[in-house]
Amino acid sequence: METWLIMFGSDIFLLALFFVVGLWLKKSPPPRRPKRSLIANGYVQTKMATTNDDTWDFANRDYGRRLVRVATVAFPLVVLAMVPVLGRSEEVVAYWGSAVMVALIVAFLVPIVWTERALRATFTPEGTRRDARRKQDRRA
Length: 140
Prior knowledge:
The protein is mainly α.
């Protein structure tokens, strides 16, 4: 039972961390910094996300929104996934809880792909919004 509580608590803690980080990024994206590492503050520093401040803010807000959504959907799934191993041997609980944790980490990475697609759909490669570009074309 003790192992189950530790694994369940760890999985729920990871979900809570995703939720809090998602809220933080959604409400106030960190300032864009020069490239020093893959992740300095906030969203992954991809080429598209660091084009300008507008793309950086969009990427952080979009990723935060998606991360909150993933954490909200994953919470009942984690609870349902851990209930069947309640009362099983420590080894079974440890392996199952670890598998759930790996699935949560993958779920943490999937919104990055979705955000990159949203960036490419919303912005041109130069970093201007596609809808703003259309408005400028209409004026000319």
